[in-house]
Amino acid sequence: MFTRKPKRKKLFLNPYKLKSRRRKSEWKRGIFRKKRSLAAPKIFLATPRFRAREASGNVQRKVALFLSILSCGSLFYLLFFFPFWQVKKIAVTGNNYVKAEEVERLAYEKLQGRFFIFPKKNLIIAPVKALTEAIYNQFSQISKAEIKKQFPDVLKIEIIENKPQAIWAAGSPSDLFLPPEAFAADTTSEKTAGEAKQEDAAAPISVAVPIYPENAAISYYFLNENGEIGANLALEKVFEQNLPIIYDQSFRQVKGREKILDPEFLRFLFQLKDLLSLKTDLKIQELIVPIAYSRDLYIKTDRGFQIFFDTKQNLVQQIEALASIIKEDIEENKKEVKYYIDLRVQGMVYYK
User: Fold this and answer.
1) Which one of 71, 181, 253, 322 has the fewest CB atoms closer than 10 angstroms to its CB?
2) What predicted TM-score, i.e. pTM, was given to this entire model?
3) How confident is residue 254, by pLDDT bands cut at 50, 70 and 90?
């Protein structure tokens, strides 16, 4: 017969006396833990001492809230409305042709007024981006403007200007409509051989030379390397720049950053100055463009006559043809040029 073994009774064991780790883990998981009855919840009654402590805590919280609001308001006022942070000085650097006073005046105008309730003159919220765009649009001579804040009250404006390559002379709107008698037209011409010495007949060239009225108002502008109009120049400052002056015969009004010449035209002009002094003894007195975007360039020499060039053709060939005419026809044959020498037709030279 088989007999069942009696079940072992679970004993309440002390875990610190257990040797095996398994029994310790079982004890922690509650296998050997003795069941306990739930204790009855305590009933709390507010005492006068507790009520006094609660009332004092409410007062402290209200005081803390008031102090925090006061400190935030004071900080807000100190940052945005206190005169200490307002712009008191504007420093302009990097300017050579643009007047610093004009840039400062524009900056002060843009800092007037408010942005919602905040004054724009505050250095922390000064409209730097809008001010940079205004300076760039107002002054065509400036290629880049960068504004930096120097706390507590200085606004520094660093500008980079376009390097002028020439001066553009244009008439004012009152000179756009000149009477017909302001132009002296000449339709007769003489032809002569150039390098090929061709003496065939050619069509006469009509030359219209403008006669500037005594009260004509001429405006002078810088031209940058891209052929764009730059800053306006006063008459007394024009001849101090040591730059070639290009006169516009169309008397057209121009505006800032307007492109009126190709960069190749300016390169042709500077090469012309060097080659003309190298191959001939002529000196340039005036540079004339018949109209904006023109390929023709007229120069007035120290001998009184003009020379017509085509900026799209080879400059070296035109200069060599000019040197040949001056040497053979003018100096050797004692022919006189009173009005012009035209080099615009390839292989031909016309003069009158």
Assistant:
1) 181
2) 0.64
3) confident
Q: Which of 84-93, 213-222, 329-338 tops mean pLDDT?
A: 84-93
d(CA 198, CA 146): 61
**Pairing, β 218-223 against β 229-233:** antiparallel
Q: Which residues contact 98 (CB under 8 A, 6 or more apart)?
A: 139, 141, 142, 159, 161, 231
Contact 300, 285 (CB under 8 A): yes
Q: For residues 338 and 305, is the Cβ–Cβ distance under 8 A?
A: yes
Average pLDDT over residues 163-176: 70
**Domains of the chain, CATH where assigned:** 83-161 (3.10.20.310), 166-351 (no CATH)
Q: Report the pLDDT value the prediction gives residue 198, as an integer from 0 to 100.
A: 39
Contacts of 19 (CB under 8 A, 6+ apart): none
User: What are the residues whose beta carbons fall under 8 Å from the beta carbon of 318, sequence distance 6 or more?
Assistant: 309, 310, 343
Please give the radius of gyration of the chain, using alpha carbons only, rounded to the nearest integer: 45
Q: What is the pLDDT of residue 286?
A: 84
Sorting pLDDT into bands at 50, 70 and 90, what band is 25? Answer: low
C-alpha 117 chain-centroid distance: 31
Q: Identify which of 344, 321, 342 has the alpha carbon closest to the alpha carbon of residue 352.
A: 342
Please say whether the beta carbons of 254 and 293 come within 8 A. Answer: no
